[in-house]
């Protein structure tokens, strides 16, 4: 029982971090837009949300970005999460890397930042609902 409550506590901490990152992504999505900052913060917020779900469910996870995308897909296939963000994580990771290496491409310009932030907010809410449902058990 102690281990499960630790996982729930850690999940709440991660969701708080994800919410802070969401706020930074949202600010970067407004004019003047900063696509690089928006994509970077959105990527980390998505990752922290997936890890929060894993912690709440007592699942193992690794710090590897690709492994987190695989985990996101697995949680969706198992119907633990309604939304499968594995493709989004992979796409955002590539965009983030391009930015960090000083090579932001045309793909970055094609991202609708406001949609990205709205979808991220919905996903964080979905994970928060999952954690809350597990908290009572």
Characterization of this structure:
This protein has 137 residues and is mainly alpha-helical. The chain has one domain: Four Helix Bundle (Hemerythrin (Met), subunit A) (Up-down Bundle), CATH 1.20.120. Helices cover 77% and strands 0% of the residues. It has six helices and no strands. The chain has helices at 2-29, 35-57, 65-77, 86-100, 106-109, 113-135. The model has no long low-confidence stretch (mean pLDDT 90).
Radius of gyration from CA coordinates: 15 Å
- CATH level 1 name: Mainly Alpha
CATH topology: Four Helix Bundle (Hemerythrin (Met), subunit A)
Q: What proportion of the residues form beta strands (DSSP E)?
A: under 5%
- Number of separate strands: 0
Overall mean pLDDT score?
90
First-to-last CA distance: 10 Å
Reading the helices and strands in chain order gives HHHHHH
Segments where pLDDT lies below 50 for 5+ residues? none
Assign an overall shape: globular
Instruction: Indicate the CATH architecture.
Output: Up-down Bundle
**Count of separate DSSP helical elements:** 6
Largest sheet: none
**Domain module count:** 1
The helix fraction, in percent, is over 70%
- CATH homology superfamily name: Nucleotidyltransferases  domain 2
- The secondary-structure class comes to mainly alpha
